[in-house]
Amino acid sequence: MPTDNWTDSQPIVSIKDVHKSFGDLEVLKGISFDVMKGEVVCIIGPSGSGKSTLIRCINALNDIQKGSIKVEGIEVHDKHLNKLELRKKVGMVFQQYNLFPHKTALENVMMAPIKVLKESPAEVEAKARDLIEKVRLQGKENSYPGELSGGQQQRVAIARSLAMNPDIMLFDEVTAALDPETVKEVLVTIKDLAEDGMTCMLVTHEMGFAKEIADHIYFTDRGVIVEHGPPATFFEQAKDERTKEFLSQIL
Amino acid sequence: MLEAFIEFFRQLADDYPRWNFIFFHEPRQWARIVKGLQYTLVLSIACVIFSVIIGVVGAWLQSSPSKLVRHIVQGYIQFFRNTPPFVQLLFFYFALGQFTPSITGPDGWTEVPIISNVGWAIISLSFFAGAFNVEIFRSGIEAVPESTQEAAEALGFSRLQTYKEIVLPLAFRVSLPALNNNLVNLVKTTTQAIGIAVPELLYQSVSIWSDYPSAQYPTMLLLFISFIVIVGVLVLGMHRWEKAMHIPGYGA
Lengths: 251, 252
Ligand SMILES: Nc1ncnc2c1ncn2[C@@H]1O[C@H](COP(=O)(O)OP(=O)(O)OP(=O)(O)O)[C@@H](O)[C@H]1O
Ligand SMILES: [Mg+2]
What we know:
Chain A is an alpha/beta fold. Helix content of chain A is 37%, strand content 24%. In chain A, α3 (105-115) packs across α4 and α5 (150-162) packs parallel to α6. Chain A is globular and about 55 Å long. Residues 22, 25, 27, 45, 47-53, 173 of chain A line the site of adenosine-5'-triphosphate.
C-alpha cells in the first residue's frame, strides 16, 4: 500500500470528488476537501444532507461509487483495502454511543486493544485507566453502560476509541442525544483532545462550539459543499443564500 | 430406618391393593426405576447440550453470506419444526438406522449397530429441539442493534470476533427465557424414546405396571413426580444462570 510516501506535510485525509448512492438516491454528489494533521474540521448542514454518510465513508463503514478518499495515503475506496489498518488510524464516535452493554466502562475501553491489537491485558488496563481519567470518569470504571448517564456513556465511547491510538477522530453528532447540561462535559472532552493536537472531524449542530474549536467549517446541503471557510469568515460573511438561511434558523 | 420404610409400603400394598408401590419394597423393581431414571437423565442432558450447540451454530450459519447455506438451514428448520417428533424418531431409527453399518458385538457373534437406539433417540431429539433453538437464537441475534455491531467494526473487530464477543453474549441473554421453555419441552419429550425401546423411565414404568397391574397408580405417580423434580431442577438452574448473566441497567 502506498503509505510509505505519506508525510505530515500532506493532507492526513484527502477527499476527492466523492459520489455515494443508496440505490437510486445519490447522497453525496462530488465532495472534495483536505484535512491537515492536527486540524479540527466541522461539518454542518441540514438534516439529510449527507453528513453522516460522508463521515462513515472515511472509515469504510460505507463504500463509495466514485472518487477517492485517502487516509494517510491509504486509498479507502479500494477493494483490497486492509480495513484493520485503516481502523487503527481512524477512531469513530457515534451519536448513540453504541457501547457494549455487557461490559463495564473499563472493559469497553480495554476490549479492542486486547482482542484486535492483541496487546497484553495488564498494559492495556493501565492505559485504559489513564483514558478513563482523561475523560474525567474516575470511579466509574466498574459501572455498566446502563448505569451511566448519556454524557458519561459518550465519554466512555471517546475513551474506547482513543484506546486504539488513532491519528484521526471522527465525531458524528455526538452530543445530539444528550440533554443540555451533559452536552458541555462531552464538548470539554473533545476540546481537550483537539488542544492535544488530535486531528478531528466533527459533524455537529453546536454552532457555538464549532466556532470556538474549528479551524475550518464546511457547510453541506443536498450532497455538496455549499460554502466553507475558517469560523471567523464563515459565520460573519456567509455569501450563499442556503448557508444564510441555515445559520439564521440555527443560531 | 430403611427396613421400616420398606415394611410400610409392603403393608400398604397388603391393605390397599391398588396402592402397591412395588418399587419401594421389591429390589428388582427398584433397580428398574433407577435404570430408567439414569436413561432419562442421560437422554435429557445429552439432548440439551447438543440442541444448544445446534442452535448456536445454526444461527451463525443463518447469517452466512452464502444463499445455499441459508436455504439448507431453513429447510432443516422447516422439516423438524413442522413434523411430529415421534414420527421423526421412528424415521431416524427404522429408516436411517438400516443404513448405518454394524460391528460384531463383544460376544463375537451378534451384530451390533454402531448407533444404538439410545444414540438415535439423542440424535433425533437433539435435531428436533435444535431446530427451535436456531430460531430462538436468531431472534436473540436480531435484537442486538446493528449500531452496536458497527461500533465493534469501527474498532477493527472482524466478523467472527464481533459475533463471538458482542452478538452472541447479548443474544444469549435475550434468548434465555425462550430457550428455557424449549428445553423444558425437550426433557418431557424424551419419554417418546419408549417408541424405539430405549429403557428410560416411561419404558420401565410401563413394564412394571404390565407385570404388576396393582402397581399402576403408584408408578404413574412416580412418573409425574420424577418429571416435576427433573424439570424443576432444570428451570432452577436456568433461572440462576439468567440471574448470573444479568447486566445492571440492561434490559428488563
Ligand atoms: N443505509 C441507508 N440506506 C438508504 N438510504 C440511506 C442510508 N443511510 C442514509 N440514507 C439516506 O441518505 C441521506 C443522507 O443521510 P445522512 O444520514 O448522511 O444525513 P445527515 O446529514 O447525517 O442527516 P442528520 O443531520 O439527520 O443526521 C438521507 O436521505 C438518508 O435517508
Ligand atoms: Mg447524521
